[in-house]
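To illustrate the input format used throughout this study, we show a single complete record. The first block contains the structure-token representation of the backbone; no residue identities are included at this stage. The design step must infer an amino acid for every position from geometry alone.
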């Protein structure tokens, strides 16, 4: 089993979200398409989620997800400045495994500069199913993975809604298998026991969204081209990362979001652990990350969100909130394929529903719970997943 059970201390979370906010400035939310009609107050907020999980390969897993939201221009505030965030996810298991993931998303005043970082270390087992879109559950292998990753990105607004910038990503992996079960030991793989890579990239972005969190309308298009030179990597590689989202405000409470991605890894020899993987909590929900992997990955999804405002106040001891929720339903499809081997019957379904709770209404920050289902292969149970996340999928 690799399904996870998440236990949420909801009362503690609501209290923490309500208490850990501090007013900064306020301004009128004047957009007719916005969620909020009244005065919007900028806040700093800290929101932790304790998580308890169990899986056969990891044993009991204890961890947390923490997000700190703030604004960089408090000395000279601009109402248009987006909130910045620091996201920390540590976890440890009873099998002496450990991971820590630190992400930052920083916007300067008036959104002139945008910086993102990701520092990750993990000593975690994972299932390797093979390469392609027809892998089987019963032939999977359990492999141990130690990974170090440092990722830095920066973009500057150059005109209107256009941004340009650069990226650097360093990743070092080691892999091992404690037994001969499954396809890992019998499949010829490039850099089977690990390697390292340094990608140097250029980025172009168009972004006219009304907000980066729980977006109501606008476009976000991103293209990143990156090269890994031989003197900085085990293998010389080139990759393409293209993403796009579009949001339509159907009514004051209804929003339709569209999202698509295309990832491609090119080179003479392709390390298996760098191949684009299908499945996570953002797109193609319902699939184990890496269940299907190959040289190219194409996926798209649509999500309908409906705002629920009960217009009630809960005041119990130190808990004082006016809860606001959103319901969501989503559906998508995606496929992985080798160069010159694209075929439409390789597309797989993903669909499900979820609920969002606005723990920081001024910044539209949410905690999200989604349940998704995917493909049912012959002789296997239908693939599915339950996700607990901070912020929207896209």
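Output of the design step:
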């Amino acid at each position: 089993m690799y399904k996870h059970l998440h236990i949420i201390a909801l009362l503690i979370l609501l209290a923490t979200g309500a208490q850990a906010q501090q007013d900064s400035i306020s301004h009128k939310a004047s957009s007719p398409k916005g969620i909020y009609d009244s005065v919007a107050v900028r806040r700093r907020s800290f929101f932790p989620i304790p998580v308890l999980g169990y899986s056969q390969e990891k044993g009991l897993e204890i961890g947390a997800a923490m997000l700190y939201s703030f604004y960089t221009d408090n000395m000279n505030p601009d109402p248009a400045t987006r909130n910045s965030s620091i996201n920390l996810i540590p976890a440890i298991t009873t099998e002496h495994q450990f991971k820590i993931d630190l992400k930052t998303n920083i916007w300067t005043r008036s959104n002139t500069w945008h910086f993102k970082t990701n520092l990750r270390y993990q000593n975690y087992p994972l299932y390797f199913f093979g390469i392609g879109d027809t892998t089987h559950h019963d032939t999977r292998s359990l492999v141990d993975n130690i990974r170090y990753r440092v990722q830095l990105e920066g973009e500057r607004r150059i005109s209107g809604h256009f941004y340009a910038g650069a990226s650097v990503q360093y990743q070092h992996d080691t892999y091992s298998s404690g037994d001969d079960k499954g396809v890992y030991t019998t499949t010829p793989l490039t850099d089977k026991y690990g390697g390292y890579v340094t990608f140097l990239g250029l980025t172009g972005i168009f972004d006219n969204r009304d907000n980066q969190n729980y977006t109501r309308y606008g476009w976000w298009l991103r293209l990143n081209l990156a090269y890994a030179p031989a003197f900085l990597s085990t293998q010389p590689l080139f990759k393409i990362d293209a993403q796009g989202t579009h949001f339509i405000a159907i009514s004051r409470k209804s929003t339709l979001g569209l999202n698509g991605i295309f990832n491609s890894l090119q080179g003479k020899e392709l390390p298996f652990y760098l191949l684009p993987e299908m499945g996570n909590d953002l797109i193609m929900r319902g699939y184990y990350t890496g269940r299907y992997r190959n040289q190219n990955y194409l996926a798209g999804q649509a999500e309908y969100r409906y705002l629920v405002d009960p217009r009630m106040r809960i005041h119990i001891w130190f808990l004082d909130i006016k809860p606001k929720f959103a319901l969501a339903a989503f559906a998508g499809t995606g496929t992985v394929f080798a160069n010159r081997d694209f075929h439409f019957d390789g597309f797989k379904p993903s669909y499900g529903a979820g609920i969002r709770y606005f723990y920081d209404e001024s910044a539209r920050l949410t905690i999200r719970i989604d349940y998704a289902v995917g493909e049912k292969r012959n002789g296997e149970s239908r693939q599915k997943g339950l996700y607990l996340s901070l912020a929207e999928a896209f």
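Structural context for interpreting the output: The CA atoms of residues 82 and 373 lie 34 Å apart. The domain at 70-390 is CATH 2.40.160.50 (Porin).
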